[in-house]
């Protein structure tokens, strides 16, 4: 038989649950406030003591209310934080299982796709998904099987909250490790984020792809177009992370395609025809020029990292393409970075020096050698035409 003390504890629990069931949403909001304040960071034994060995009953009530109201609840963030107290409780694995049994993962993922929910609510959903992923490989697989990668990638690309984006990136990185069945799916999901309009999302995604690269092995060809595309970004952090990822990708099979793509970016469609880009129906020429400048900088960085890469670039006619970029009088950054990279090839490979000298002529070549970082500032349209039309015949 239960003792008088135990009976009293059970009675208090039943009164509390009845109070919850009969309360309107304002009263429930106050109950959640008190619960969060009193029970944050408690362990499973402490929660059971608080609820007279019936903490699971309150969790079940919270989960039921979440399932019924997550599409319109006005205190969704408090509700999710309250559930998080159970999921994060030390020794509280059974709470996690109980939450999953009512379809918790699917609900959390659906919240991320609701356009009218607050960013704060969606961030709390991501935090709960992180707690689930932290429980082990089979829980990571459960999230991925529930189309979690697509939902998280979309939220990362569209969120307006830097904090929420960082939490989402951490979760995607977690799903990409110790999860061999779905790590390639995570990698491809991240690639799909790169064309988005959020510089912060691009930066975080590039960093995560770099960290994941050793885990996934060979990168899919889809990464080539996506990474080259972000070089249009005017944000230095995005450009920096792109360079770091490209360095890592040089050790993989996509290297030739990436190098060919970089060389192609040095010569936009109108660069060798002296036509107005607008006349060719090309949109956003300034972004293309930004991409050209980034490519000019990166080929120099990659060449300095590896003599083998430098020689491959030379065979891809990078020298001529750099000279074309130097002649872009409409974009100083392209001229500067192309000139600096060209200087490296000239100084490192004697046969390149001779070919460039023959193409430029003695006077223009001497100007370049005297001051490679500034010679383009004195360039006139005639000089630019010489650079664009020069023939650099390197065997």
TrEMBL record:
Pfam families: DUF5578 (PF17741)
Domain of life: Eukaryota
SUPFAM superfamilies: ARM repeat
Stored InterPro entries: ARM-like, ARM-type_fold, DUF5578
Name of this chain's protein: ARMD1 protein
Provenance organism: Probosciger aterrimus
